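just leaving the lab so this will be short. what follows is a protein written twice so to speak, once as letters and once as structure tokens for the fold. can you read through it and tell me how you think this chain folds. thanks a lot i owe you, the record is right below.

___
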Amino acid sequence: MSDAEAALLLARAQFAFTISFHFIFPAFSIGLASYLMVLEALWLKTGRGVYANLFRYWLKIFAIAFGMGVVSGIVMSYQFGTNWSVFSDKAGPVVGPLMAYEVLTAFFLEAGFLGVMLFGIGKVGKGLHFFATCAVAIGTFISAFWILSVNSWMQTPTGHAINAAGQFVPAGSWLEIIFNPSFPYRLVHTVIAAYLTTALAVGAVGAWHLLRDRTNPGARKNFSMAMWMAALVAPVQIFAGDLHGLNTLEHQPVKIMAMEGHYDSHPHGAPLILVGLPNSAEKRVDYAVEIPKGSSLILKHDPDAPLAGLDSVPDDREPPVPIIFWSFRIMVGLGFAMLGLGLWSLVARFRGKLYDWPWLHRVAVLLGPSGFVAVIAGWVTTEVGRQPWTIYGLLRTSESVSPIAAPAVGGSLLAFVVVYFAVFAAGTWYILRLMAKPPQPHETVPDERPERAAGITPAAGMQGGGH
């Protein structure tokens, strides 16, 4: 391996490592910000202290996750200049403004109201505080909007031209760039994934404490709300994922070939390979367990529809099949596990046993991290499946890297590994410690407004509800 090839490999590994760490926290904070908004709305509507208690409980966890997400995101931005300067130069006229819009809209909105949300309980009016919570929740969504627009444009580039300097520049309407062909599907799929990730984490915390005390009102409410989300949203996510897959087949067929493990073309219906061992050297999937014509049925809605395989693609345009093959199956498998948990919880709910089935709670705890694993697996499928391109079909990854030496990239990668595991492991450990403490059971009488209970004001009732 030449020094240039080693530098490229290390630069890719460094970006993959840092973005994997980063993606965990926004996936959690996007859903958790919306959950906090719902909790505060329910408290203001019903006056029940259990919602105030849960708001205070999850607010601390959100603050830590949000902070770690911001810090890890800044590190990623610097890599565009250090390791991917050629990409930054060529794609900057398109990517730069979109990234700036994210800062000017989402980040400023979040930063402007985060302090009020975190420290304003009891210090500002309840209406203003709720507005701040809504602003932060909306800001997390707007941030996802712009970042996913950038990423989707790199996957399905439209609305651009290439100038004499080889740069991608806007051509016509910016709306064509922002709302590129894969963006709507990717946005819906990713945001729902964030909500499911949060629901599984919240449900796991609720289930953990139910195993210790089934009467804890905070644990019961946590678990109930999370299981409603899993039961109702998991089927929607599977449907959204199917639509996203059909869009990918239209615009990035090679990625679908790798995901399905189709080394060969199938003119009379392609099988659905459930599991197997992709063998790129021999161009086959060893020990394949498959459903005849299943892939054609899913992707074309016709069991006899032909599907092209990787034999129709030059070798230098093939992505690394084994990675994508397995990351896709991990994501899909966990998605169906979430669906199963949601359906199981519905059975328990309708039988009046939602808080009384320990095995349901144990499985919920087991699946608590599954959302994080699924979003990372989905990211790997999306990004590795785009290879060997940075901008799909137009700019290769090997042409995007900075002219830097492999030892320099290796040294910075090692530094990132050490620092990330030290700093973010400490933050994650602290979050888990907070989760290990049960929600405080003290609450006002369910049918009584907090301002009528003990003669306290709504703001003071919310402030006291967390103690």
